[in-house]
Amino acid sequence: MRGKYDISGMSCAACSARVEKVVGSLDGVKDVNVNLISGVMNVEYDEQKVSESDMKKAVEASGYGMSRAKTFAEKKEQKKINDAKERKSLVIRFAVSLIFLLPIMYLSMGHMAGLELPAFFRGTQNAPKLAICELLLTVPVLAVNRIYYISGFKKLFSGGPNMDTLIAIGTVSPVIYGIFAIVMMLAGGEAQAEKYMHELYFETSAMILTIVTLGKMLEGRSKKNTLEALDKLTDLTPKTATVIENGAEKTVNVEEIKVGDVFLVRPGENVACDGEIIDGTTNINEAEITGESMPVEKDAGDTVYAGSKNIDGAVKVRASFVGEDTAVAKIIMLVENASGSKAPIARLADKVSAYFVPAVIAVSVVSFAVWMLCGADFEFAFSRAVSVLVISCPCALGLATPVAITVGTGKAAEHGILIKSAQSLEVLGKIKNILFDKTGTLTNGKPSVTDEIPFDITAEELERIAFSLEKQSEHPISGAICEKAREKGIMPLEAKKFTALSGFGVRAEIENEEYIAGNLKFMEQRNVDVAAKAPFAEKFASEGKTPVFFAKGEKCIGIIAVADTEKEDSERAVKELSGMGMNTVMLTGDNEITAKNIAKKLGISTVMASLLPADKEKVVSEFASNGLTAMAGDGINDSAALARADVGITFASGTDIAVDSSDVIIMSGKPHDIVKAVSLSRAVIRNIKSSLFWALFYNVAGIPIAAGALYSLTGLTLSPMIGAAAMSMSSVCVVLNALRLKKWKYKENKETENKK
């Protein structure tokens, strides 16, 4: 049996991995997958061995919540409410934290900046009052950010510590020690007050919580909105359709159409559901469904897909697939399933925390116990234990990734590259396979004139006649011909009695002469002598181009070839990505001849053509099983593949669906910016790894000293104050290291040679 459930309380990749582990360990559970982005768990289980109740208990015991998955509409509405609440909560938490942090910093560190304290706080005799005031100012910061303690300690006690656990321990330890210091000051008089007045670290806790909350606010802005992408997909098909019953036309809701019903699709309308044309001829734009770059001529017996657009002729269609069985509905399902099955890559800091946090706590407890057994007083032993916790504070470890990611995404934005999540930026630099859609990604996505062959007239005369004929047509090929003429400054002649013959061509009278334009079949039907010109048509077709014949009366006067041409920097992008060690592949719904011609020009050896959306998604899945895979596309038909890939890349000019299904958006529309994005990602990853190494090295080196390992030999220890100062310095170093990314510049040769 299969089940779908909403999981609440997850905050990082370690959380989703934890849920998968506890549910997957139950007897009777065959397969489980948890998607952190959507918060959905898909599970296959034997209901004879395990029940929903068993799974819910296991999930809740791990510190998370589980409930039956909501419907798409319910989830969409709930997500809007939750997102609004979360944004408001983060703004309030950050504002409150900052408001109380400033006076704490003034009281604790103002003297370093030459700021004098009020008289009633000065001196040893007033130290307890100052300490209590700092504590009272810190409590609201802790209270407003209590989510870290609720989550962190819950995960710790359930055996799955994460970054929240690090934050909770690192910020609560200075507070506990501070309370201890206040008690000692109050109980021991001026001697104790003088000793402990400099060992208050409340500002450490307040600062960490404020910085972390700010990071959460910034991170929240870049979360992927898969549900919104699915919502936009549902708008692709029309809401109503014209059904023909007993010869009469009737407007009905699309949901009311049944298999076998006949409906009318007029020019400019979108097809309501998948079906077969039973009457009429037209051109259909199927770019969103199949990726075909040119409108496809459709006649009786041909199949049309829901969501595709009828360009010129009215056709009657018999419904073959309706509702959830249509091609566009399956795309929706594929996007949702692909997003749900994408395995998130856990952040290195989360992986480290799973071992680091328990180890630190153990060292702290052991150091306290050892010193007590060795005869040290409680104060010394407690100071050693707290020093271990303070110097192990995760500020540097926790800042390493988000600060580098923040700087990296900002630098990417400067280059016109929008990266939606930290995970996407991390994974992008590790990609082994990059799969390209053709139309609109490697090519311009619209037809343009590639060749002109005039017969017994000049090229300019052919262009003028073509412009005059085609300017009244709305066909994309006509648009390409007219655009070319406009670029040359050619003025059209007056065309009278214009007629568009659906699926074939156009005719009109120019200067009292009949001119026609169309395909080879149309010319033959109009008795135009094109026998000697047929080889040109065959040549252009073999090159993936569409030839348009022009005739004056029954005499052929020229041919203009039109094709979707490659973008000017596509070849460079493919070459450099290959040079960086990536396997480049082209996936397209276009015909094989066209695809192979484009691929040959660009240097792509692997081409898969005539693919439907489901085929693309399947191919991406196969590549992803053999290494991290990126998919670059810009159409609705690419959305499932974009969601399935480890990183989906699209252009800002692409469809809303593709943009929402992607992780990286290239604003310029230039394929070469993908190379820049990969290069920047690698720089960020290197920066993060170096910061994590030094942050971890600092902790590993400092913990033994803080625990008093050298005290017996050298008398050297680290007080909590020195530990906090060292922790702050490590954080500053991490931030400065991340800021080096601001100087990043793309270096073509270096990145091409640096094959990974």
What topology does this entry show?
Blueprint (H helix, E strand, L loop, with lengths): L1 E7 L4 H12 L4 E7 L4 E6 L6 H10 L3 E4 L3 H38 L17 H18 L2 H11 L5 H34 L5 H19 L5 H8 L6 E6 L2 E6 L8 E4 L8 E6 L2 E4 L10 E3 L4 E2 L4 E2 L4 E7 L5 H15 L6 H26 L4 H14 L3 H20 L2 E3 L2 H7 L4 E5 H5 E12 L4 H12 L5 H12 L7 E7 L3 E6 L2 E6 L1 H6 L8 H9 L3 E7 L2 E12 L3 H10 L3 E5 L4 H11 L3 E3 L4 H12 L4 E4 L6 H6 L2 E5 L4 H6 L2 E3 L5 H36 L3 H4 L5 H20 L8 H6 L3
Helix pairs in contact: 3-4, 3-7, 4-6, 4-7, 5-6, 6-7, 6-11, 7-12, 8-9, 10-11, 10-24, 11-24, 11-26, 12-24, 12-26, 13-24, 15-16, 19-24, 24-26
Low-confidence stretches: 222-229, 337-346, 749-756
The whole-number mean of residue pLDDT values reads: 82
Strand content: 15-25%
Q: Number of helix segments?
A: 27
Q: Tell me the helix content.
A: 40-55%
Alpha carbon gyration radius: 34 Å
Q: Largest sheet, if any?
A: 7 strands, mixed
- The global form is elongated
Kindly state the number of beta strands. 26
Explain how this protein is built.
The protein has 756 residues and is an alpha+beta fold. Helices cover 51% and strands 19% of the residues. The chain contains 27 helices and 26 strands. The strands form 5 sheets. The chain has a 7-stranded mixed sheet, with helices on both faces. A 6-stranded antiparallel sheet has the order 6-5-7-13-8-11, with no helix packed on it. It is elongated, with a radius of gyration of 34 Å. It starts with a strand and ends with a helix. The model is unreliable at 222-229, 337-346 and 749-756 (pLDDT under 50).
